[in-house]
Amino acid sequence: MIERLDAFMARANAAYYASRDPFVDFVTAPEISQVFGELLGLWVAMAWSMLGSPAPFALVEAGPGRGHLMTDALRAAKRAMPAFVEAADIHLIETSPRLIGLLKDRLPQAMFHADLSTIPDQSIILLANEFLDALPIRQFVRRGPAWRERYVADGAFVEASAETALPDAPEGTVIERNETAEAFVAALASRISRRGGSALLIDYGHEGGATGESLQAIMDGQPADPLAEPGRRDLTAHVDFSRLAMAARNAGAEIRGPAAQGAFLAALGIHERTAQLGHHAGQDDALRLLAATRRLTSPEAMGSLFRVMAICPRGMEPLPGFGA
């Protein structure tokens, strides 16, 4: 069977998340430290207040994993701004039956959706941490005077003529396009522009239209062949934030950032919150908290690889974490 790369990636990841525990293979920021989710909870509460405190509104997480981010966010937001939690209708975008079963136990008040289209047409605040990187990409390779598109057949790449218009580039250049992510951001931005709201997108990636292939696979915590054994490994690719920003602006919204995750979390007070928790914890727990914060913020770890971008209505005042 020959499949275009995006179709192969979509099929493989659907099977992977339906049958395997992804957290055996990798760990995400909410699993590393509760402080991550707490800070995002305060961020969404402040954004809600800046939007005029709409009630009710849709508080959405795309790709909620096991629910740690939303649980930590709601706990912190309830302490700081109880009215925010009272006004929030919780919606989770998740298609894995296995993960939905876990999430129903952790967040019994949540409503589940396959995509944005079934979320009620009201003001929306959305969080997406490591969601966009798992959406399927297309890859194009420059061969002589023309572009070729990559397909997958029998665990290897094959190439066919490309019909997509792409800029001129040197021989062998690879360009990736994530049309699914761009469509998601465009639909989200259109709703934010029309109904009000904001969104915070956090993922590893780049800005400025970088070229090169970034498709990768993780299995048992180790790099693996992304084309072998579809459904047994997590497939991801770097997020092109410049194209997502363009999609959001074309849909009528504004963007803030992208900012490096380390700088964003520092601006929200991650170091102060870590010190506060450590002061009330035992020595071992305090050291674990400190190590987790360093992992999230250090440039040599997740601090510079991960980027943070917000989507908001036109003319909205500066959002927390992004400066003036």
TrEMBL record:
GO MF annotations, alphabetized: protein-arginine omega-N symmetric methyltransferase activity
- Transferase in keyword set: yes
State the name under which the record lists this protein. Uncharacterized protein
The cross-references to InterPro entries, in alphabetical order and at most eight, read: NDUFAF7, NDUFAF7_sf, SAM-dependent_MTases_sf
Q: What's an example GO BP annotation here?
A: methylation
Q: Which UniProt keywords apply?
A: Methyltransferase, Transferase
Where in the sequence is the signal peptide annotated?
A: none
- Is-annotated flag, keyword Methyltransferase? yes
